[in-house]
Amino acid sequence: MKGAHCRWSLLHYACNDYCPNALMAGVTLQLGKAALIDCFTLSLALLSAPALFRFKINSAWLVLTGGVIGLAYKMLFLGRS
Q1: Which of 19, 24, 52, 58 is the one with CA 20 to 30 A from 8?
Q2: Cα separation of 18 and 12, whole Å?
Q3: Rounded distance between C-alpha atoms, residue 26 and residue 17, angstroms
């Protein structure tokens, strides 16, 4: 009986380890599809990813910088219509 209980415990711990990671990966893909809608946002994401991973910049600075660049882009290029 102890061996069967041990197998169920291992299965429980494995599910508690992998299921949240799979859920976060799925949500990340959905957010990426919703956010990367044009060439500007795609290029902004491709430029900020190396800055985040290579230079270890705080993600809050990347969000702030992306917001400022996006606001400037909207005012310069989309405000003329």
Answers
A1: 24
A2: 10
A3: 15
Contact 57, 51 (CB under 8 A): yes
Q: What span, in angstroms and rounded, lies between the C-alpha atoms of 41 and 49?
A: 12
pLDDT band (50, 70, 90) for residue 1: very low
**CB 66, CB 44: distance < 8 Å:** yes
Helical H runs in the chain? 2-35, 39-54, 59-73
pTM of the model: 0.60
Whether residue 32 contacts residue 24, with contact meaning beta carbons closer than 8 Å, is answered with no
Q: What burial letters (b/e) apply to 28-49, b meaning 16+ CB within 10 Å?
A: eeeeeeeeeeeeeeeebeeebe
Cα–Cα dist 17/11, whole Å: 10
